[in-house]
Amino acid sequence: MLTRFSLQFQLRKSKSKQNGTAPIYLRIAVKDSVVELSSKKYINPARWNADTQKVIGNSEEARLINAYLKNMEQQAFQVYHELVQKGVEINTANLKGRLLGEEINRRNIIEIFREHNKKVAALVGKQYAELTLERYETSLKHTLARCSPGADYFSDTYCPLSCNLYPLDGTKFCLSC
Fold first, then answer.
1. What does residue 40 show for φ and ψ, rounded to 5 degrees?
2. Which of 24, 154, 157, 176 has its CA 20 to 30 A from that of 99?
3. Which residue positions in the chain have pLDDT lower than 50?
4. Secondary structure tally for the chain: helices H, strands E
């Protein structure tokens, strides 16, 4: 499924240096969310064309910066197409992470359930009772039984094994099936 996706280079005059140059930012919009990445390139605002989103002129500096921005734009489109092909949810966090070289953390519910149960097992007698762990293990077994091939209606309508969780920030996850 294709998602609304757009790229735009903008000059941030509010972040100008003492010498008068301003940074160029890549603004990525996906659906209703926006993220900005610094290109780490600075230019005199008088030499920036906001309509074409390029540096004005034919100097070597202008050609180098324009080529760098074009390459940055192509990388963003390439990452977008890779995420579409892999079936990964397209959002600003995933795009930004991939552009910055971070790997997308994909874990399914069963993996997280098992990790949780291991942590609870380590805390039995300290923070959890043995019966609490037993109930968590039973819940995991029931979930696995319903998601196995040939199981009842549950596996056809909703199966946590096929759902992935994507980090939205440090603590929250987004469920994508």
1. 65, 25
2. 176
3. 152-162, 165-166, 168-177
4. 5, 8
